[in-house]
Design brief:
about 425 residues; mainly alpha; ABC transporter involved in vitamin B12 uptake, BtuC; 2 domains; three-stranded mixed sheet; two-stranded antiparallel sheet; disordered N terminus
């Protein structure tokens, strides 16, 4: 073995991170504390009214459950500490399983703690999952929009604006034509228009992409607020009504699966489109000519140009495509949730989608997982006030953001954006 090879091997052997074991230890300590103070019985509700059968409620002591979950977290922490200390190589599937187990144990332990001794409600797992899907859908569409545009080299800060105009156009067109599917077509068109403006200024004229995105967000907020307060309010029943919303489509058999069936397979067509888009993008982004050209323009546009790829056109087309997906996600706020449009209905979800994009390392599956994590945290925060008054409201509202910070600090590590992101290419 040469000197350089021995040096490289030494570098690999000495490189280790205590970040993930530290998170596991913190989760274990939290669960032990929760288990020690948990008292009373907890009511766990597994049934859903959409299912044809009834699952009996589970009423049992909460402390043993939390102690069991604490043991799982402690075992994962011990395994992580040993493997890290000995510099042992572990397969990726083992690390993923450990992360999932610790995460679920922590969340479920907190829910059982909050629900133990509560007289106001029970831990409704199915309802939490249904809420998770609902809260995650626009985030997933927004994160996928960011994956496409940033992989091609365009920073899309305007995802918030895309969601907003999509929600506005969706309910406006659906109300006017008395057809929810008309709104489903209008929403991505409105988002694509925002993407066209972003591409026009940032790709063609080389204006800073971040600045253009921020301006477009302000533009979207101003336009929707103005027209919402003028055009829509003049004819609320005709132009801004929740009467024409997407109906749920129940998939036979799959929707009857306990707990997860109603959450995943009793949804609107918009959610099913999201499933297809995630799978298609995860495949074609890395296993197709389109994906190769897209990523080449985001990593090294000059090299892409030398092999015959039209960088400007590729960036423009994919920026418009990404914004159209975000506009489709915006439709979930109105016609997908049976709600009328209100000012700033997106409520910062576009920026959360950007965080999910970075958390997922510019990968469609990773971005989806990050969006689901944030949606699950929000759903849990919405459930807690119904369980116990012992949990302060301010703490409940902080939960989604705390979870995001912990995930970024402990699970993700270093993220590398596409090399040519926010770098104009002019021939």
């Amino acid at each position: 073995m040469s000197t350089s090879e021995r040096g490289a091997q030494t570098l690999i052997e000495t490189k280790r991170s205590w970040k993930l074991p530290g998170v596991y230890v913190a989760a274990s300590v939290l669960l032990v504390i929760l288990a020690a103070v948990t008292s009373g019985d907890v009511r766990i509700i597994l049934n859903d009214k959409s299912q044809s059968y009834v699952i009996p409620e589970i009423v049992t002591a909460g402390a043993p459950i939390v102690w069991g979950l604490a043991v799982i977290a402690i075992a994962a922490a011990a395994w992580s500490l040993v493997t890290t200390a000995r510099r042992m190589r572990t397969p990726s599937w083992a690390r993923i399983i450990a992360v999932v187990l610790v995460g679920l144990s922590t969340v479920c332990g907190f829910l059982v703690f909050a629900g133990s001794g509560s007289t106001t409600g029970g831990v409704t797992l199915t309802s939490v999952l249904v809420s998770t899907v609902a809260l995650s859908t626009p985030l997933i569409f927004g994160a996928l929009a960011g994956v496409i545009s940033e992989r091609v080299g365009v920073v899309n800060i305007a995802i918030e604006g895309d969601l907003l105009v999509g929600a506005f156009a969706g309910v406006l067109v659906a109300s006017y034509f008395h057809n929810a599917y008309a709104g489903l077509i209008a929403a991505p068109v409105a988002g694509a228009f925002m993407g066209l403006l972003l591409a026009l200024f940032s790709v063609k004229y080389g204006v800073d992409q971040v600045i253009v995105g921020v301006v477009l967000n302000v533009l979207a907020l101003g336009l929707t607020t103005f027209f919402g307060g003028t055009v829509m309010k003049k004819s609320t029943l005709n132009l801004n009504t929740n009467q024409f919303s997407l109906s749920t489509i129940k998939i036979p058999g799959l929707s009857e699966i306990p707990v997860i069936g109603p959450a995943l397979f009793n949804q609107t067509i918009l959610v099913y489109i999201m499933y297809v888009v995630v799978a298609a993008l995860a495949f074609f982004l890395f296993r197709s000519r389109w994906g190769l050209r897209l990523r080449a323009c985001g990593e090294h546009p000059r090299a892409a140009d030398t092999v015959g790829i039209n960088v400007q056109r590729t960036r423009t087309n994919n920026t418009v495509l990404g914004s159209a997906l975000a506009g489709l996600g915006g439709a979930f706020f109105t016609i997908g949730s049976s709600l009328a449009f209100t000012d700033n209905i997106s409520a910062g979800n576009g920026y959360i989608a950007l965080a999910a994009l970075i958390l997922g390392k510019w990968n469609p599956l990773g971005a989806m997982a990050a969006a689901v994590m944030f949606g699950f945290a929000q759903a849990t925060a919405h459930l807690l006030p119904n369980l116990s008054n012992a949990v302060p409201g301010n703490l409940v509202s902080m939960i989604p953001y705390v979870v995001t910070i912990i995930a970024v600090a402990g699970f993700v590590g270093k993220s590398r954006a596409p090399a040519a992101e926010n770098v104009p290419y002019m021939k």
